[in-house]
Amino acid sequence: MFALRLLQLRKERGWSQPELAKKIGTSGQIVGRYERGDMTPSIEVAKKLADALDVTLDFLSGGSELPEAFRDKKMIERWAAVEELPEKEREAISLLIDSVIAKQKLRAMVA
Question: Which of 5, 15, 29, 73 sits 20 to 30 Å CA-CA off 92?
């Protein structure tokens, strides 16, 4: 699962193997071996890959099937910040999200 996710995420970002390798301090050949499943990275390297791809290590390793928004570490950080807000502000954010979703559903029905 790790190899497939690594390959998919790299391609989604439009990066070559050497481009991803440069971000984590290795070679394109090594990234290719990870993607083919010929080699398994250490935990430290897997974390670097997850960070470079801006996903959680859990998602990269196949441990979760989350919606795309929750694969994104920035989105997870946002939700963590929302959890710290007072109840009234969290309710306001929920209402805003609900209204955006309802608007999108309405657009889809009309289209």
Answer: 73
